[in-house]
Design a protein that fits this description.
Order of helices and strands: EHEHHHEEHHEHEHEHHHH
CATH class: Alpha Beta
Number of helices: 12
Strand content: 5-15%
Length: about 280
């Protein structure tokens, strides 16, 4: 199983769009593909499941979801406290079911999703205090026989859930908008990845930077991308142009491959996926 985390601490750079569209292409190529949504905004979840995943004042979040998994992690720790080594303690610890019950099929063949929850962030302190940072990694490893590719969508922050995703992943994919602010934020992001590799996961690789909203005829985007390359950063050759078709894709809850397979942006995603796949 190849596990990729799509990560950027800056919001609005296209993490969910990149996660879902690469996952959709992966599934169309015959790979059993799973999207794990760790962002409380639930964008990847709604993108793939539509109204079924809607939530609001009158609609509850789709369950079970990734919050359910982390709740069981916490409950298992609480219930087994003081009982380790006893028969009862062993029984209580088995109540952690892992991630399998949280997997929801989508309408697309070979593509599944573990939904996010808008209240996921409320659990962060408790999970940190009980040192549960490796639980997601272990639970995903238990799914090795069920999936070939995993794409993890992360919140726009470096927090417990992002760190869990980095530890659980093999490779990091970094969405990048062509502006000065994104360039400045990139250094901090890379420092966090290096620290994670040093402290928790020595095999973690930065697979590459996905340049999003790239305007090939404009001077500034070309200069920004060239500066990334001059710094020796791994920029994917296939970049994603801006297009209103992405908004239509979100509105219809259809990844681009299923909405407009011949569109320029769709073909850019396909080329990007092929570039990634060639590196495995």
């Amino acid at each position: 199983m190849m596990r990729r985390v799509v990560f950027n601490q800056k919001g609005g750079v296209g993490k969910s769009s990149i996660t879902v569209n690469l996952a959709a292409i992966s599934a169309s190529r015959g790979y059993r593909t799973l999207v794990v949504d760790l962002d409380p905004q639930c964008n990847s979840t709604q993108y793939l499941l539509g109204e079924k995943a809607g939530h609001g004042q009158e609609t509850a979040a789709l369950e079970p979801n990734v919050e359910t998994f982390f709740e069981e992690v916490l409950n298992g720790a609480t219930q087994s406290k003081g009982l380790i080594g006893s028969a009862l303690g062993s029984l209580l610890k088995t109540r952690e079911r892992g991630l399998e019950p949280m997997i929801h099929p989508t309408q697309f063949q070979r593509l599944s999703v573990i939904p996010a929850s808008p209240t996921l962030g409320a659990m962060e302190h408790a999970l940190q205090s009980k040192h549960k940072i490796f639980k997601l990694r272990d639970a995903l490893k238990a799914l090795d026989n069920q999936f070939d590719r995993v794409f993890i969508d992360t919140p726009p922050a470096f927090n417990f859930f992002t760190l869990s995703a980095l530890i659980a992943a093999d490779r990091v994919v970094i969405p990048f908008d062509c502006d000065v602010f994104s360039h400045r934020a990139l250094q901090t992001l890379l420092e966090n990845v290096v620290e994670t590799r040093s402290d928790h996961h020595p095999d973690l690789e930065v697979e590459g930077i996905v340049v999003n909203q790239f305007q090939s005829r404009a001077t500034l985007p070309q200069q920004v991308v060239q500066s990334l390359k001059d710094e020796g950063l791994p920029v994917f050759e296939n970049m994603l142009p801006p297009s209103v078709i992405m908004k239509e894709s979100h509105q219809h809850n259809l990844p681009l491959l299923h909405l407009a397979p011949d569109h320029k942006l769709t073909q850019s995603y396909v080329a990007l996926f092929d570039e990634m796949n060639a590196r495995i």
